[in-house]
Specification:
Peptidase_M20; N-acyl_aa_amidohydrolase; alpha+beta; metal ion binding; Aminopeptidase; N-acyl-L-amino-acid amidohydrolase; signal; 19% strand; binds 2-acetamido-2-deoxy-beta-D-glucopyranose
Length: 510
């Protein structure tokens, strides 16, 4: 009997061990698959393969394996070659060379069932790895990578101050960019071609990879001037994912994290916009986006009949009312009463109605029973959102006309105390004076602070009551964010007394 129990116990033990082994083996397989996907997501297709990203990725991967040595050779500029070596116990014997090319043939995205580099979602591992290496090449910077959302890392770079208990400074840059249509660009949008007159063409050049690099290069310059430099307050830089799609998996989660709370952030500096003249622009508020859908229902009927209250008629009445409102707001802008960013915009983005006829068209002799319209609505923090809701309920989608509406608020409108999301730009905000001074000392001049017509991650900080300003020092530059042929001139950022110098001064003064 005892003997049987013993065998049973042994069997159980073996089974458990096998189970644990197979579980950790399974995990290892999953991890390897993830790394394969990450590598696939790096677009190295011709004609313009970006070799820095795969080299950086593979280099990081090789370094995560014990005993491997890596070297990067630049036999041709911009075409690095990565060499990974595991030394043998008899290094004088002929060695083994395993080869893999990093480029791939082009793909025609339109003909694929999934985007060809999309094991994509946006690939954040490459920029995090790149920026991490860049930060680590500067003395005294500490880096941490936070995974608040799987596959969406956030890189945190820190320079500790001499008085670490004082509120810290947080400089922000988002790593993502909006898409680009390569066929409409004069240079491939991710090739960062620099023309003879110094224009660097790339999606993200203005929005907002310029500040990403300026923060670090300003710190590098500071350290080169004074290797013992220590700011009074701790300075953090965060590189966040997903700003262009609302920041829900990026800044919104970050400000909720323990890491953020421990940072005790006193002042936040984020992206701004280019200025077409000689003065820098600074932004103290964003407009908040609403996605508004208005929907009408009505009795359906034959296309030949005239009757009241069809869904189409009900919707069209609303479309006219909204258009009139939009026109009035736009008139204020045209008359110079208010800037674009301080009125409510309500732009129609889609119309949906009709009875499908089955062949991809619509039944032309049928008045449909439902019709809807979608609007991109933007509210400056100066307006009362409840008043606009009342207007929507009473005039844009009145129940008396059998209409309903749905609003998706894409972000907060008021801070935790119910105040409009605006950062003061007067003496009531001590950070403002320091920022202004830093800009002036570096030879720059500021234009009147503005609201931003669109929205940024700064709203999440303002919501917590933390002063937050948008500032990308680019002057005498056309505003090209989200446009074809987005570019930025080298001297605007790296020239004497230019963007980088301004950030240098800001870090030293704050
Ligand atoms: C609203 O719908 C009801 C029920 O279908 C209909 O009787 C009424 O005429 C409609 N009113 C308007 C203004 O569309
Ligand atoms: C500073 O600006 C804020 C916000 O615009 C305003 O409420 C406040 O009254 C101003 N304070 C002073 C001292 O001007």
């Amino acid at each position: 009997m005892l003997h049987h129990y013993f065998i049973l116990l042994m069997l159980l033990l073996i089974a458990t061990t096998t189970l644990t082994t197979s579980l950790s083996q399974k995990q290892a397989e999953l991890d390897a698959v993830t790394r394969f996907q990450q590598y696939l997501r790096i677009n190295t297709a011709h004609p313009n393969p970006d070799y820095s990203a795969p080299v950086s990725y593979l280099n990081g991967l090789a370094k995560s394996i014990p005993n491997l040595r890596t070297r990067t050779l630049y036999l041709t500029p911009n075409k690095p070659l990565l060499l990974v070596t595991l030394y043998g116990s008899k290094p004088l014997l002929p060695s083994i060379l395993l080869n893999s090319h990093m480029d791939s043939v082009p793909a025609e995205p339109a003909k694929w069932s999934h985007p060809p580099f999309s094991a994509v979602k946006t690939d954040y591992s490459a920029p995090v790895s790149y920026l991490n290496d860049l930060a680590n090449s500067i003395p005294n910077l500490r880096t941490r990578t936070l995974y608040l959302t799987p596959n969406k890392p956030l890189l945190l770079v820190t320079l500790y101050g001499s008085k670490p208990l004082l509120p810290s400074i947080l400089l922000n840059s988002h790593m993502d960019s909006v898409p680009a249509e390569p066929a409409k660009w004069s240079h491939p949008p991710f090739s960062a071609v620099k023309t003879e007159d110094g224009k660097i063409f790339a999606r993200g050049a203005q929005d907002d990879k310029c500040i990403a690099i300026q923060y670090l290069e300003a710190l590098r310059n500071i350290m080169e001037e004074d290797p013992f430099f220590k700011p009074v307050r701790t300075v953090h830089i965060c590189y966040v994912p997903d700003e262009e799609i609302g920041g829900f998996d990026g800044m919104a989660k970050f400000v909720e994290s323990d890491e953020f709370k421990e940072m005790n952030v006193g002042f936040f500096l984020d992206e701004g916009q280019a200025s077409t003249n000689d003065k820098y622009r600074v932004f103290y508020a964003d407009r908040s986006p609403w996605n508004l859908v208005i929907k009408a229902v009505g009795v359906p009927g034959h296309g030949s009949r005239m009757y009241d209250n069809s869904a189409m008629e009900n919707l069209m009445k609303s479309v006219e009312v909204v258009s009139k409102f939009r026109e009035n707001q736009f008139d204020l802008v045209k008359a110079g009463v208010l800037p674009n960013s301080e009125v409510i915009s309500a732009n129609p983005v889609y119309l949906k109605a009709g009875t499908p006829s089955g062949d991809g068209n619509f039944a032309m002799n049928m008045q449909p029973s439902e019709a809807e319209a979608g609007y991109d609505v933007r509210l400056p923090p100066t307006v009362d959102p409840d008043l606009l809701k009342k207007r929507i309920a009473e005039e844009w989608a009145p129940a008396t006309r059998n209409m309903t509406y749905h609003i998706i608020e894409k972000g907060p409108l008021r801070d935790y105390l119910g105040r409009p999301l605006m950062t003061a730009t007067n003496e009531s905000n001590p950070w403002w004076a320091v920022l202004k001074n830093a800009i002036e000392v570096s030879g720059g001049e500021l234009s009147k602070p503005e609201m931003l017509a669109s929205t940024t991650d700064a709203k999440y900080l303002r919501q917590l009551g933390i002063p937050a300003l948008g500032f990308s020092p680019m002057k005498n530059t056309p505003i090209l964010l989200h446009d074809h042929n987005e570019y930025l001139k080298d001297t605007v950022v790296f020239g004497r007394n230019k963007g980088i110098r301004v950030h240098h001064q800001i870090i030293e003064f704050l």
